[in-house]
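If your schedule permits, I should be very grateful for your opinion on a structural question. I have a record of one protein: its chain in single-letter code and its fold written as discrete structure tokens. Would you kindly read the sequence against the tokens and tell me how you understand this chain to fold? Thank you for your consideration; the sequence and its tokens are set out here.


***
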Amino acid sequence: MPLNTRMRLIPLLLCWMSGSALAAGLPPLLVSPDLVRDGRGASTSRPAAALQPAPAKPVPATQPVPAVRAPSASGATGGSGAAVTPAPSPGPVADRAPVPQPVATPDPSLAAGDTLIKAQRILGTRSVELVADGDAELQRDDTVLTADRVTYREPVDEAVAEGNVVLRAGQDTITGPKATLVIGESTGEFETPSYTLTRDRTPTVAGETNRKVSGSGNADVLRLEGENQYRLENATWSTCQATDPDWYIKARELELDYDREVGTAHGGSIVFQDVPIFWMPWAEFPLSGQRQSGLLPPTFGSSNKTGADLAVPYYWNIAPNYDATITPRLMSRRGMQLGGEFRYLGETYRGESRVEWMAKDNVTGEERTLASIQHQQRITPNLYGSLDFNSVSDDSYFEDLSSRISLASQVHLLRQGSLSYSSGSWWSASALVQSYQTLNPDPDSITATPYRRVPQLLFNAYRPDLPGGLVFDLDAEYVRFAHPDKIYAEADRLTAYPQMSLPLQGAAWFLTPKAGFHASSYEIDRPAADAGKPDSISRNVPILSIDSGLFFERDTSWFGTNFVQTLEPRLFYLRVPERDQRDIPLFDTTLYTQSFAEIFSENRYSGGDRIGDANDLTAAVTTRLIDPETGAERLRALVGQRYYFSDQEVGLFEGQELIQAGGRTDVLAGLGGKLTQHVSVDSYLQYDTGEGQTERFNATMRYQPAYAKALNVSYRYGRNVIGYGGELGLEDLDVSGQWPIGRGWYGVGRVTRSLKENRVTEAIGGLEYDGGCWAFRVAVHRFAIERDDVSQAIYVQLELNDLAGIGSNPLSLLTRSVPGYGKINASSADRVFGVD
């Protein structure tokens, strides 16, 4: 993101819209020279008359006020004028102590464009000059100007406000001892003003809420230089609301151009705790979320792989729908790297490209590069295309140059291009070409490269509206599997799977019988090691299934709380005859991990190279506790198992242990929900009844009483799961959380410990401080890439609200690693909607 201060000075031209409401059809008023201290305004060649004192309730100057002759020495008036007691002359403005100004609001009865003046005394000549003295107030539209004295000169459309000047327009306030404003030209000047300016911030991130951003500060001079143009001298600005802000921008000259929504600071710096921390001799920045070219705040950090790490990004706003970021990065151990990112967005397309280049790594002595391209496009209203290409120069690129575990542990980099077409009614088709770059940073642990699909063609037809309630579904595929290593077989595979079902349902039950026919054909190019096996194979498999379920519910009470409890039994029968598939190589197929989704599926294998034989029944039951008033699910429990009536015959490979008739899968059970308003649990169990032992067990509990207060404990066990270092078996304990520790400080962290290996595999520890309008974060991240290869990174960031973050940002790490983590300086609206 570009440097974004969200500085938005009020368009003060609302205060000074041109108009002649004060002069139209009104008799002249003569002003006493004694009441005009600077001698400007009323002509001294004419007889002067004292103005009648104002009543207790101020009278709008737009109302006709008859001229009054000057009183005689005895105080009597001549003609029809009423006798008055002359008001005492006010003292000079400079001699008076400041008086707190009441909060003024626009008069809702004032017509648009009209001007209303109120004061204790109103003197002057209409169409020439009016002097409003004593709690003076000038209103126009939603703008209110108050001061000890306001002089309005109609011929030049000028207002001079003196003494305790307060300008309020909309949500904004500017104060100062004096202001001179020319309304029609939108020009003028405030002397030594203080200001608070509030604007609605337009969301810049998907899911972000609308919120208000307030900026306040002061200046020696604030000048209006035309509509939407402002210039401040020796000015400050901050999102802190205190009179003594913790941080602020300080600039010798500040220009605000609201036509372009761009601000310019000359001779500026960022001051934190009265210490300048970032110098900006010249900088442009957006005023209201508008992107703007310029240097972004530098990021810095440290890790054992890169050493000290400093990056200084430059943001280039090429066009409203194109931008680029160029990032020189200096690593004390590795050397200099240059990175770049290009983003674009159109009505029918979007995408981004990223490159990184290091001419010579000081450790390896080699050139190192990264390239990444993602593109999506709607070619026609029904035709879509996408491209996803990723490449690095060597197997250890992410391990050496990234401090993120998600990148450092990447093995396969996708390279894929696709086209998809939707008819908009009942059929769709797609085509793709796909391959991977496989990384093997550890020569002792080689990962096989997945097959390439060159190409894959897919076709789907779905008709849910056939006579008699029948539903027709067709899945068809052609794919060419290729591999860079010629010791592996290659093949063309053609499959078609037409299906017909009849969904039946009532208020408390459903029944769905289904019949399908899976047809496959292979043309295989075998390596020499497979000589003698057939090159052409056809496989035809009928598939029959019946899915059924019931729904019951009752009112119940648990611990004094009323609930609706449901009972939902479900039966799923599957019949698939056995077909000999031993001569078909495995291109994209593996055995599914047992789960609730798997025991209700038609095939225990992923991909299309094995169709598992079946004559089995799945039985499961679910019960839920539901809040009768809100409909929210408070607790959910389920248990299920699949039972086999025939021996399994189809395996992935020779010698695979298969389930025999009378056997059954492991028992699967789950329990989860919100036990209380602040405590939630989730758990999953896979239990082998034959061996009498647990195969898998996961349990998580979270306590979250408020925003940015969360404690999590989770346990993971897998008897046959591949764990760290490729060893069989996994048993982890994970503890994480975020909690206030007092006086604005928060602790945050996570520890994952392998109980099987008796070592910590990942640890995060950090401290955060919420300064109200700024936040400070420091975090240390340590994670094991391999048993003897540990990466460490340090993050230090100072974030100035709605301005910039300086340093390396740990927010993505903390959000990803600590469930329930909350950004401590997020707005109240974003805290509700969860935007970080």
